[in-house]
Amino acid sequence: MKTLDQLQFDNRFARLGDAFSTEVLPEPIAEPRLVVASPSAMALLDLDPAEAETQVFAELFSGHKLWSEAEPRAMVYSGHQFGAYNPRLGDGRGLLLGEVLNDAGEHWDLHLKGAGQTPYSRMGDGRAVLRSSIREFLASEYLHALGIPTSRALCVTGSSTPVYRESRETGAMVMRLAPSHVRFGHFEYFYYTRQHEQLEALGRHVMECHFPACLETEQPWAAFFREVLERNAAMIALWQAYGFCHGVMNTDNMSILGITFDYGPYAFLDDFDAKHICNHSDDTGRYSFSNQVPIAHWNLAALAQALTPFVEVEQLRETLNLFLPLYQAHYLDLMRRRLGFTSADEQDEALVQRLLQLMQGSAVDYSQFFRRLGEQAPEQALNKLREDFVDLAGFDAWAADYRARAARDGDDQQARRSRMHAVNPKFVLRNYLAQRAIEAAQQGDYSEVRQLHAVLSRPFDEQPGMETYAERPPEWGKHLEISCSS
Ligand code: AMP
Ligand code: MG
């Protein structure tokens, strides 16, 4: 276990030089205070959890202090936003402070979001508000607890610094950790500015640090693209299986590592709705829940374009064609587990599709459905779940097929229950729960966000006494409008 001053840095990205990032010092926020910290994220840096309670912790993660070995830099990138190319984005309010080398030999980027203006701030103030910082923190740590690849969040620091959005709010910073902050948009930036030397250096850097096996192949760039595509197919399958809606799948928000990244107006589905749009500013539903699959494919095609100096177009196209089958195989595997099956059957895909069609337009809570399905033997569970469906005849036909299918796997209910509960969370990061915690935090009471984080860090466990956190949203909580402003 280490104290904060014992962290070791090895700033590999900074060493790539000024074509890739610009030196910028964090601009502190006033009267810093710890809002919430994640002990499991601290463990990635070998940090003693007690360090979170020290004054220096809040000072480091609010821009007041800096390690002497840190080299804070704003990264340059571009990207496709809502389908249109934006030639110059970059870290407009976040800084890569450096890379911590932990005892296991892993590098973890420390990225401080809300650290003030940079050359890439455009019209922005360089700040992040408490509301969005808490949302990013909760989502990062919850997706991780579910087993979905994601950037992590070490802590949120609050302040008295005023920040103006639709109304006056206060500034906060979130300390984000990831093995890399390179996005699809990094590659697009060097491709579209015709800096092919830098593009090549970036690719080499990413392969050396994160995909060393690619360098052993005859065509490292082709292998690299395939690896990114496979990771994305696996990640999107998890999003769809667990009802996670990202909301802003611009290529500058897509990690080259295939981890969930840059949380904005995200949501987990409450009642199932394939067409759900969680981003209030997404008028056309480009990033609706069911569109996430074709959009991920589209984003990979945008990345492929940036790799054309190194890989034949035909080969990129062939790899792109693997996306949907790979996604589908992962998704089906996850849904089989969620339904409690231990084997694969040809009929499973249709069974899943029929279930989702029945849920659509009914008032079926997506997450609770699976948890309750495992709670009791199929017959009793289905009898109870039936009440929430509109098409009862359709549901009865599905239920009969499900029972027959479950019987073929043929095991006792206790084994089925523990198997299903291990993949079907009891606790879900619902917007209304986050909202309640945010409102308390805005009044200076951080107990709710800490409690919620603690509950959500063990989403599959029963946690007696915490049942209220597992409830469906109240009516007000179903229709929260989460704006893009953050
Ligand atoms: P996002 O929608 O958060 O992914 O941000 C898109 C782009 O806008 C990125 O380049 C951000 O760095 C930048 N950006 C977002 N909010 C701000 C802000 N308040 N100040 C400066 N830049 C920002
Ligand atoms: Mg972003």
TrEMBL record:
<feature type="binding site">
    <location>
        <position position="93"/>
    </location>
    <ligand>
        <name>ATP</name>
    </ligand>
</feature>
<dbReference type="GO" id="GO:0030145">
    <property type="term" value="F:manganese ion binding"/>
</dbReference>
<feature type="binding site">
    <location>
        <position position="125"/>
    </location>
    <ligand>
        <name>ATP</name>
    </ligand>
</feature>
<keyword id="KW-0460">Magnesium</keyword>
<protein>
    <recommendedName>
        <fullName>Protein nucleotidyltransferase YdiU</fullName>
        <ecNumber>2.7.7.-</ecNumber>
        <ecNumber>2.7.7.108</ecNumber>
    </recommendedName>
</protein>
<feature type="binding site">
    <location>
        <position position="90"/>
    </location>
    <ligand>
        <name>ATP</name>
    </ligand>
</feature>
<feature type="binding site">
    <location>
        <position position="113"/>
    </location>
    <ligand>
        <name>ATP</name>
    </ligand>
</feature>
<keyword id="KW-0547">Nucleotide-binding</keyword>
<dbReference type="GO" id="GO:0070733">
    <property type="term" value="F:AMPylase activity"/>
</dbReference>
<keyword id="KW-0464">Manganese</keyword>
<comment type="function">
    <text>Nucleotidyltransferase involved in the post-translational modification of proteins. It can catalyze the addition of adenosine monophosphate (AMP) or uridine monophosphate (UMP) to a protein, resulting in modifications known as AMPylation and UMPylation.</text>
</comment>
<keyword id="KW-0067">ATP-binding</keyword>
<feature type="binding site">
    <location>
        <position position="126"/>
    </location>
    <ligand>
        <name>ATP</name>
    </ligand>
</feature>
<dbReference type="GO" id="GO:0005524">
    <property type="term" value="F:ATP binding"/>
</dbReference>
<feature type="binding site">
    <location>
        <position position="262"/>
    </location>
    <ligand>
        <name>Mg(2+)</name>
    </ligand>
</feature>
<keyword id="KW-0548">Nucleotidyltransferase</keyword>
<feature type="active site" description="Proton acceptor">
    <location>
        <position position="252"/>
    </location>
</feature>
<dbReference type="GO" id="GO:0000287">
    <property type="term" value="F:magnesium ion binding"/>
</dbReference>
<keyword id="KW-0808">Transferase</keyword>
<feature type="binding site">
    <location>
        <position position="262"/>
    </location>
    <ligand>
        <name>ATP</name>
    </ligand>
</feature>
<feature type="binding site">
    <location>
        <position position="92"/>
    </location>
    <ligand>
        <name>ATP</name>
    </ligand>
</feature>
<dbReference type="Pfam" id="PF02696">
    <property type="entry name" value="SelO"/>
</dbReference>
<keyword id="KW-0479">Metal-binding</keyword>
<comment type="similarity">
    <text>Belongs to the SELO family.</text>
</comment>
<feature type="binding site">
    <location>
        <position position="253"/>
    </location>
    <ligand>
        <name>Mg(2+)</name>
    </ligand>
</feature>
<dbReference type="InterPro" id="IPR003846">
    <property type="entry name" value="SelO"/>
</dbReference>
<feature type="binding site">
    <location>
        <position position="176"/>
    </location>
    <ligand>
        <name>ATP</name>
    </ligand>
</feature>
<feature type="binding site">
    <location>
        <position position="183"/>
    </location>
    <ligand>
        <name>ATP</name>
    </ligand>
</feature>
